[in-house]
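Milestone M4 deliverable, item 7.
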Amino acid sequence: MLKYNIHEPWKTLDPWQEEYINTSGNCFLLCGRQSGKSAAAAIKFGKRAALNPKRIIYMLAFTEKQAYNLFFKTLMYLKANHRSMLIEKGADKPTKHIISLRNGSQIFCYAAGLTGEGIRGPTVTDLVVDEAAPMANEVFTAISPMLSITKGNFDILSTPRGKTNKEGDETYFYKCSKRKDFTHFYISAEDCPRHSVEFLKSERESMGELAYAQEYLAKFLDDLKRVFSDSQIKELCILKRRESILLGRDYFIGCDVGRKKDPFTFEIFDRTNRSNIQQVENLTNVDVPIPENARRIIELNKLYNFKKEYIDSGGMGITVCDILRESESDKRKVVEINNASRRYEEDGEEKKKGILKGDLYKNLISLMDQRMISFLDDDDLKLSFASVQVEIVNGEDVYFGNNAHIVEGITRAAWSAKDKSLKPYIF
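Output delivered:
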């Protein structure tokens, strides 16, 4: 048996992937994390484009990064299996958005964003939407007419995000789970041979039963609720990046420390006007050593002269704090925020050690409800907001999300709204 290779997934397909690839008509895929749905869709539509002339295939996702992930896997498949059909040179060579084949078929890749307004209009033969669960219902209002004239095929795939949106309406993705004009595929991560029992056990223990059931068992759960509504995200994510850094402002940075393949995020805010806190930058790193990320904070401080640097100090985050404290320019600005902090009782009174994750989120939610904070018009940031969910455990709100890293950094930077100590330091 061949060993699984992420660069050649078509050589070791699971039985369900083979069945899905060979299924025509509309398809609905409800899958646990890392179960192979995107790889299967890439193979299916790459093969369909190569073997059928004049197909017009649109690959969409919430963000360009997500859409390009599916698109790149499709290009990889075509290069390995149908290279003679692929136009690789000249004006029609592959770009970040278009793959053209010699039989007249084309594959397009775009971000749908919050509303889908930017991709209205085209007529297509095949529409595939990846990571569809957090997408707003109005996106599908915008894109579903694309198939009207051609009577084309619609494939929609995702890990679930609950049955309803923040407003209480059923999501389009959940509605598709009940439609009879789709062939349905339900794939649990526990059925995927590439997940080890030890890994899944560790994930279940660290994230809790409900979150695990959603993310890995691919179950729709009413007990998990979205925290931020589409309308709220649309209203507050409106800022353009400044062309230059304004001097003499009160800048703060909040960082969520990425571990292994998780993003390390840098969220920078201008809090000069407490009633109008504005995000000025959103930066992320993946697979970058912790010391290098710490040095990046030091370099950013040279540009912005932060008042405070709010750092996730849990796990490897304490290393970031230690490195920053070795810097003369940063050492007095570091504020540790450890999500592992817990409330406790002393002499019969409830107290808390550190700043709790729930406190961070409640502060951010309050600022957003009062329209005292606004954010960059950035699709990755919007996706992060859309991914955050809450579960009530033992009477307390527990916040989580598989794309929540940016918001985790934002919650820390937004804690600057409570900061009172802005007296300059004397060295």
